Amino acid sequence: MKAALTPALSVRNLHVATTGTNPTEILKGISFDVNPGEIVCLVGESGSGKSVTSLVAMDLLPKQEIRPTGGAVLLNGEDILTATPARTKALRGAEMAMVFQEPMTALNPVLRIGLQMEEVFLAHRKMTGPDRRQAVFEAFEAVQLPNPPRIYDSFPHQLSGGQRQRVMIAMALALKPRLLIADEPTTALDVTTQKQILTLIRQLQEENGTAVLFITHDMGVVVDIADRVCVMRNGEVMETGPVHELLAAPKTDYTRSLLAAIPSLTPPEPAGEERGDIVLEVSALSKEFRLGNPLARLIGKPDHVVKAVDEVSFCLRRGRTLGIVGESGSGKSTVARCVMRLEDPSSGAILLDGHDISTVQGGALMRARKRLQMVFQDPNRSLNPRIPILESLSEGPMNYGEDRTSIHARAAEVMEIVGLDPTGLLRYPHQFSGGQRQRIAIARALLMEPEIIVADEAVSALDVSVQAQVLDLLDQIRRERNLSMLFITHDLRVAAQICDEVMVMRNGRVVEMGPASEVLANPKHPYTAALIDAAPGRSWDFVAGQPVGIPVPS
Amino acid sequence: MTDMISVRAARARRLLALPRPGWLTVAAIVVLALIVLAGAFAPLLAPFEPTELNSMMRLKPADATHWMGTDSYGRDLFSRVLYGARISMIVGFSTALGSLAIGLPLGLIAGWFPLADGVLMRIMDGLMAIPGILLAIAVVALTKAGLVTVIIAIMLPEIPQVVRLVRARVISVRNEAYVEAARLLGTSSTRIIWRHLLPATFGPMIVQGTYIYAAAILTEAALSFLGVGIGTETPTWGNIMAEGRLYFALTPSLVFWPAVVLSFCILSINILGDALRDSLDPKMKARG
């Protein structure tokens, strides 16, 4: 092989800015190369400009709003920025292709998969109908989709998330492009599916020698897939280098802090086996959802019953954190919503200090609610955008008859506890960042002085550095106030860091439960083992800065 | 420091932060203001009584005394169009206000209480199945034609639209995490509706209100034109056009002037409605 190879994609001093009277620079002169047969990861937190970079390369920017203002983007030496729209259209699909985050929205829901797939060949190749069909089957086989003819005739909703993403990859790679851009292609998938998709991309890339630009926010995924890494922040490339070098010896403080924020998969040593009394006991909790309509019932057609939660039992002790871990559809959120009585359980008991609250109504439910508070996943949606946060915070205490002056004083106090300036109380939610909003949501829960906090994926929507801070805050509050916490998450790393006990759920049932250190270190159930195995970046020890397995020199 | 007065101030600041209107919106506001003022001060502005007959001056073209000419009874067209603005503005405003006032609570109830939803919405579907103008004609035919009857007749078919709109908004907001959070904070149903759901319907309601306003003016003109609206002795734009239709070949200005004013009026209201929709849309605001 000749050493002087042209990069498949070469980004040179690229500047991108918003249009309008007050332009803001989104990319401030970034440069990097992706060589043939190489996977380069663009890593960064939200707002770092990584997705914009990919859109520039594909010439898919909404040009009325965002425009390149300088530099060059060379695809096999040809500048995309100066190419005609007709030319870039021809290049898309044939020379470069893209896989998006959410395969459901990237596929047309009313067309059969096969037809959508054939479109790629229709647009770029002269082929007869049967040939196209054959080519589609081969493309499906290449991405290891089972039974290609069945997939061909399916609609997008009939496939699983992983299968849909395989279809997207098949489409992207159908014409053997030189460059594949994958924008967070596994973020919407469960970890076990994610692992399969990552392996598939790796494998296809090696077979075809494709250059891959892989965009992700997840350092674990970087470990699993990257050859080289490009760390981005606020529209600039902070540093770039081969993956192991960069992970072992990061050159910038930013990369160091990013790596330090990644929670370890190994739980910290349990801090003393203090056994508090039981505050919450759930026994044989079940929740069924009945799907059916009155008309179908009239003709004797039985309802479609979905058992979201099936005989789940657990205890939560004072001052402890119980993690409920599982993939999407495992029923973990439904358990939390039943405990909070946002859903009415079908059967079973929820004992709060020995009193069953699973069926209480009115005043009794109101008294129970004060002791249980919830922090939701998406802080953009859990605060009413139309009212100042002071009003959101005081809503609860006011319902319980506290007077305004004392609420306002306490609200200011709680704001300081969660690390925010009390003068911000009169501002609206949109004036805060995502992490700050989640702190406000925590403050709202704290103002109720609950005994139990239920956190439903409370850090999943946050960037990793913010996530670490919010986790610390939750843990600190729990310790200081001797609160108990029910922590629902899909992320084993997060669970490992914050939970004393872990309960693993699958298809509405508990498959394993026990102390976090035990369950995560020595899983008894094969499913738990599979989950841990699929956790991205398992081969790298972020704390030690080296691959797992090498003993730390002491 | 954090008393209720400053909360109000914060709210007020937010309302004032609406984006600056474009020239088209400004023009629409000016046109609409002129028409409203013309209607309000018609007795002062009109050079003649709108019902004053003058057999000497039948079907005269425009001149210095009769700015738009005269009709077949020798009445001054300009004065009649001015007075017509009164009726149009009253009908438009009352219909919009009335249908919102009735539709809003019904929509809130339908959206929040699933049991009421089925019954209420089937009634609304029934109302919607009848073409609006036919329903209006039927209502007017059953009762004595007059201003109030006409307003009710035009309002009736608009109500289901409002109910549907409010209901749809409530259903999408009721599943928002912040409404669930409010439930967990012990907030009662009535308070949730008052605090979280009602304000969420304001934006679409104001916009819908302007569209009803425009549609009502148009429907009133159509009813008058068909001869089933407000009595012919009252000058309305529809009545003027209906009478002018007979002499259209001779003096087209009889239809032309009220039609022009009517068109500008409707156009302005619709432009204003669009502008309101854009400025109340949170996505547009985030950009501004």
Level of helix content of chain B? over 70%
Question: Which blocks of ≥5 consecutive residues of chain A have pLDDT under 50?
Answer: none
Rounded mean pLDDT of chain B is 85
According to CATH, the fold-level topology of chain B is MetI-like fold
> What fraction strand of chain A?
15-25%
Using only C-alpha atoms, the radius of gyration of chain A works out to 26 Å
Give me the CATH architecture of chain B, please: Orthogonal Bundle
**What is the general shape of chain A?**
globular
CATH homology group of the largest domain in chain A = P-loop containing nucleotide triphosphate hydrolases
Strand order of the largest sheet of chain A: 6-7-8-3-9-10
Return the string of H and E elements of chain B.
Answer: HHHHHHHHHHHH
At CATH's second level, what is the architecture of the largest domain in chain A? Answer: 3-Layer(aba) Sandwich
Low-pLDDT residue spans of chain B? 283-288
Shape of chain B: elongated
**Domain count of chain B:** 1
Give the proportion of residues in helices of chain A.
Answer: 25-40%
Report the end-to-end length of chain A measured between terminal Cα atoms. Answer: 44 Å
CATH superfamily of chain B: MetI-like
SS summary, helix count of chain A: 21
Kindly provide the radius of gyration of chain B, computed on alpha-carbon positions and rounded to a whole number of angstroms: 23 Å
Estimated structural class of chain B? mainly alpha
Task: Describe what this molecule looks like in 3D.
The complex is a heterodimer of chains A (554) and B (288). Chain A is globular, with a radius of gyration of 26 Å. In chain A, strand 9 (228-233) and strand 10 form a beta hairpin. Helix content of chain A is 37%, strand content 25%. With 554 residues, chain A is an alpha/beta fold. The mean pLDDT of chain A is 88. Chain A has two domains: 9-259, 3-Layer(aba) Sandwich (Rossmann fold), CATH 3.40.50; 318-344 and 357-522, Rossmann fold, CATH 3.40.50.300. Helices cover 74% and strands 0% of the residues of chain B. Chain B is built from twelve helices and no strands. Chain B is elongated, with a radius of gyration of 23 Å. Mean pLDDT of chain B is 85; it is low at 283-288. The chains are: A alpha/beta (554), B mainly alpha (288). The interface between A and B is medium-sized, with 39 and 28 residues.
